[in-house]
Amino acid sequence: MLIVVSILLILSILSPLLYKIFKGITNWIITSVIITSLILFINYGKTIFSDDFLLESYEWFSSANINLEFYVDGLGFMFGIIVLGIGALIVLYSGYYLKGKEFTGRFYLYIVLFAASMFGLVISGNLIVMFVFWELTGISSFFLIGYYFYKEESRINAQQALLVTGFGGLALLAGFILIYLSAGTFSIKELLTKRELIVFTEIYPIILILILTGVFTKSAQVPFHFWLPNAMVAPAPISAYLHSATMVKAGIFLLMRLYPVMGDTNEWKYILSGFGIFTMLMGGFISVNQTDLKKILAYSTVSALGLMVTLMGISTQEAIQAAVVFLIAHALYKGSLFLIAGLVEHSADSRDINVLSGLYKTIPFLGIISFAAAASQSGVPLFFGFLGKELTYTSAIDTDFLKIFLPLMFLMANILMVCAALMAGVKPFIGEYEKEKVKISSFKYISPLILSFTGFAIFFIPGLLNNTIINPTVNAISGVETRIELSLWHGFNIPLLMSILTLAGGYYIYKYRNYFKLHIEDFLIFLTPSSVYHSMISGLKKIAFYQTRILQSGYLRNYLIVIFSFTLILMILPLLIGNKLAIFTGDLEIERYEIFLYSAIIISAIFVTVTKSRLSAIAALGVVGFGVAVIFIMHGAPDIAITQFAIEVLTVILFVIVLFKLPRFSNISKRKIKIRDTIFSVTAGVAVFFVLMLITNEKMRPLISDFYTENSWTLANGRNIVNVILVDFRAIDTFGEITVLAVAAFGIFALLKLTVINKKEEHK
Amino acid sequence: MIKTIDFLNSIPLLIISVSAVITILVGSFYKKSTKYVYAVTLIALIAAIYYSFGYLDKEYLIYNNFLRVNNITTLFSIIALFAVLLSTLSAKAYIEKEEINFIEFYSLVLFSTAGMLIMIQSYNLITVFVGLELMSISFYILTGFLRKRIKSNESALKYFLLGAFMTGFLLFGISLIYGITGSMSYANIFQDTSVFKNPVFLIGSALFMIGFFFKMGLFPFHLWVPDVYEGAPTTITGLMSTAGKIAAVGTITPFIVYTASDNFRLIFSIIALLTMLIGNVTALAQSNIKRILAFSSIASAGYILVGVAAMNDLSIKSVSFYLLAYTLMQLGAFIIVSLIEKPAEGINEYRNVDIEDYKGLARTNPQLAIPLTIFLFSLGGIPPLAGFWGKYYLFYAAIQSNLIWLSISAILFSVISLYYYLKIVVYMWFNPPANGDVYKIDSMPSLSILIAAFLTFLFGIFPQYFFALFKTPFK
Amino acid sequence: MIFIFSNMVSLDYFLTLSIILFSIGVIGVLIRRNAIIIFMSIELMLNSVNLSLISFSSFMGDSQGQILVFFVMAVAAAEAAVGLAIIIALFRNKETINIDEINILKW
Fold first, then answer.
1. Which of A154, B86, B175, C17 is in the most buried spot, having the most CB atoms within 10 Å?
2. pLDDT at A583
3. Cβ–Cβ contact A690 with B under 8 A
4. Which fold would CATH assign to domain C11-94?
5. Same-domain pairing of A631 and A533
6. Has residue A425 been placed in a domain?
7. CB–CB of B175 and C56 under 8 A?
8. pLDDT at A731 over 60
9. For residues B327-354, average pLDDT
10. Three-state secondary structure readout of B409-434
């Protein structure tokens, strides 16, 4: 498995180079490499059929229990074939579709990277590995959607798609981590046996919601569906590959993958079918109200995805089988229809189905391919889509879950899907002939032809298909070894009746669709999450804007105030936690000279903060410094006091020198502001005072540091402890201190150099 | 008494300090020797990193319990040294462009590095303070290094006044811790756990932490960050936002994990939440790339605090891994910004730093656009890049401590951050070029970009290489 | 050489004094507009911390507080030098040191 992924990744990196060398035939080369890897992959099939699964594990990040594991069972096998098979066809098609466009080399890089990551996603055997590939598909699709970068729309929608799916991806990651915490493993193989560790935990609902957020964003379920139609700005092959056949099915894949681990609970059933039903109906309604070919297809894809989610929600063996069959059928016909839409646009210069008509006369062959795909989507007998539809109805009827309601919903959704198929696959080709005959290179037909034809052919080999793909897949999903036959004909029963009703209803709505115009979109515009998304972003931007104006005003004063206020809050919080709010109760017994000293210090300090005179401010600061020095002496620390004196003198001199270069203190602020500031500052100061005073109530514990006193003589041969400590124990600190001063000294030098330079310039 | 063995156990610190002193001395005698000083600085940094690796599995208390050399401190030191190395490597081109190619630049960088090492390895509140100030004062000067540029002056003044103001609170905190525990040494402070609930200790440690929160740029102490990051010379911004942050985080995280009680967890969580919110949302309204990166660095501080708030055995691991990843991507981005920036040429402004100037960069300068895209995606937490594992581990640590709500909101905010990172990517890749300028890139900056981009990938694909550096289980 | 204050109450006085000084410093920082005076107020705060450190130190008979005081003083001096240099550099370019007039960097 690792080999296949590596081949694809290397191919991706090399593809711009390949394009430089081979130009027009690069697509053939890349396609053949992809097909080779597909064959390599199918070769693994033997092991998968005999052992039910294939596990490949490489040590990767073992300390976090994350190994590079690949786990392929029926489910992975089916998805792998879809991803690589359709991928090969898409690359082939792209070569002709994008002929003459700029940056084709890069396009190949992204699309092969996407194929590699999508392939890695479906065969990964470890949740984290899966997540990595999951995000990689998002990134590569981001570049693919933005391929027509000169369009503003492209840029915006590419970003939107990545944001929405990126958000889901991160939610998914959180869900995976929670799974790991509950089950103790990221390995899918092991998880499959640990269902009860997850389903019965308290956090199961959280896990489910997180995972489903990931699923719903990727698989475009309401309310996250809007990115998908918007992503239609991408070139047609991208829409066919990413937005119908593979990437959007990653969510469905994950549902199927995790079904044995966390499926089939009440929460699972109701959430999935709720969102699924809503999505399939809404997608269907919107799709028949569209006129743009690709938009019709996009919304009907949304609808189909909703249908699959609903089927997974039903949680019966039959429903799972229906989902698998439907998924394969959908990948085939929808991929084909998108490719056809691209060719139609190229040959008729329009995607508006009201404009397009009679193309059958100019490009008949494409018309036939298109009819086949549309027939499959509508569920016409003899096409694979018919099987999917039958099974869907059967499973809805056979279950006890949401009786009657569920089949009706399916019926409605399918009718709309038929109508969409007629609009997108048939309407452009029939009717009046308007356009000149256009020649389409026959190579362009290959891919849609193969897709459509496959959808037709496999209808006749249900046994083979069932044995090799569908049954192993269903078994892998449900975790139960059973065998459901896939038959073409179930006899005359209710599902068949419903199928006929579907076709008839679909045709009826198609025919009278102008009367059916519900203007549902006008109504939905209000609710549509697309507008929610946009208003959210512009709202966030607005908040950001105003918030910045207020908080980030650029005024140092405001910064000081904000920072100080929060400091104060954080000082008070611990007191609340400590649950000890005491009030200062000190009895004052002070000597007279002490009173004099203290009041001198305090008064000078206040003077510093209020004076307008420069010199007196400096003088007052000096008084405070000397006063403090005196207290140091009182505490028996004359050496510190002397240092303090020295530094105080130094500082005063510095201030004096500097102040004479600067202007007088100006007083320009308004009185009101001044009063406001004064009140705030004084309140702040008093608040600090009281908070800090609370500590004086706490009994400090007298803890004598024995080490230094005991060892000062023996180890360092000194009696003055402070000196001993300074010169000996703390040499390294003192070294630090000296460096601080050195830094300072020469910072000043560096900054003052300016003076010299300025003066020199003036002289010149 | 200091033993010889103490010196042997602090070789990186000695290398850095001695070379810092030597560079000043050389600089004052031979003014023209910048080239050699540059080489000496690089050699010193590389040597320091080289010797640091030797201490990974050691456990020493040196200089009379003032410094502690063990697995964790060495790891943080290595990351910080590495950040300094990368930014110094690319700095030469920038300071030559801006004509501030003085020897003092390198000396100051080395002094600040010495401060970081002292801070990270400190086992005593005194050394914490000394290291912090050594680093900060060097940064104040470096911020104002473009002396003729008003923005640089202004940012230096703001940084300096706010920083000094916070130092006052930090010191008061230290004095309270000292008053209640009777010691400055961690050995004694950590000994008696009963004191951790004492209100005086709580206020003291709150003030102490606030000092570091300020340096880390956590809400609401982040207000200086955008202004200073915008005003400082770009390569210094890169240095401050990575190495400076690593030092602050590396110093405070062990302290918090040791002393903080569960009650702090809620406060930290709220601060982390608000920081992520403000950082990410505000970045949406910015157009100056330096400011965008400043807000992204604020948001990153928030993510880091998520890991710290977890306060479990994963905290330090996750925080250090995130710091490494963050260093690579943030510094890488700043180096590229510094390369794209144009010299003043008389206007004396920072030119070409608006994201509009990045339009179409992928066409004109793919060699800059590709690594920048990698760094931005990594910042956005997209796998398989280093930033993804960084966030993964942080959120994992938080979830393990039952902070599910915090992790989920962190994830939400990461999505917002994706928006503005993507905006730059979209500008670079999907817009027509704003101008046809092709930027000249010297070999040294491109080497550092290359290293950063390579390691972003390497640690994204093989994160266990980093975790192999954890030799001893923590605590 | 260290002589220890035996009077337990005196710790409270010194602490109170230190807190008062600290609060005045905070008020000064918040109230003034002149960068230099703001800086002087910060110096006041540092002085007050020194006071409390010395008080604790002598009260507990432990020398570590005094050592920190040395460093605080050294750092204060260094900060004074650097701070004044920054202020002068700004003044040369901008002709003002009123912090309300210094806000090019914003938003």
1. B175
2. 42
3. no
4. Helix Hairpins (1.10.287)
5. no
6. yes
7. yes
8. no
9. 86
10. HHHHHHHHHHHHHHHHHHHHHHCCCC
